[in-house]
Amino acid sequence: MLKHLIGPSKPSLVKADIVSALLEFRQNDQQALQAIEAFLRLQMDPEVQTATLKVLGKQHVVAPALDDFVIRSLADPNKNIKIAAIYVVHALPSEVSRQAQPKLTNMPTDPSEDPEVRS
Fold first, then answer.
1. Does the predicted model carry a pTM greater than 0.90?
2. Long-range contacts formed by 23-27: CB under 8 A, 24+ apart
3. DSSP character string of 50-109
4. 3-class secondary-structure state, position 113
5. CA distances from residue 44 to 31, 66, 93 in whole angstroms, order as listed
6. What gap in Å lies between CA 71 and CA 75, rounded to an integer?
7. What distance in Å separates the CA atoms of residue 5 and residue 98, rounded to the nearest whole number?
8. Which among 23, 69, 86, 118 has the fewest CB atoms less than 10 Å away?
9. pLDDT digits (tens, 9 = 90+) for 51-76
10. Alpha carbons within 13 A on the beta-carbon side of 9
């Protein structure tokens, strides 16, 4: 699974599923976490990024690179990614919520944000 996750093919929904499996069954495995971190640094299409965010929200694994991915996603121009990131922030430990608070505080009143993101 690790080889497929960080292999040369572009990020896909299958890879988001691999992230889910690795976080569920190997969350204490440093090699698996490193592979996930490498995957999260890749450019993803919105559907894959949204699916990956949802996986992170369900697994509740504490790792700085995973938290950074969620917080970076709050600034993504795609509204679906932002909405998924907002939900995930609230599902993760309070430290992530504290880090995200400045972005979350401004979203509801920022006229440049999509109305769905603001609500």
1. no
2. 23/55, 23/56, 23/59, 23/61, 24/59, 27/59, 27/61
3. HHHHHHHHHH----HHHHHHHHHHTT-S-HHHHHHHHHHHHHS-HHHHHHHHHHHHHGGG
4. coil
5. 22, 15, 25
6. 7
7. 30
8. 118
9. 999 999 888 777 888 889 999 999 99
10. 10
Structure tokens at 88: 């995930």
Indicate the length of the chain as a whole number.
Answer: 119
Residue 38: both structure tokens together: 């490498």
What is the rounded distance in angstroms from the CA atom of residue 53 to the CA atom of residue 56?
Answer: 5
C-alpha atoms less than 13 angstroms from C-alpha of 82 in its C-beta half-sphere: 17
The single residue listed with the structure tokens 């949204």 is: 50
* Token pair 């505080």: residue: 105
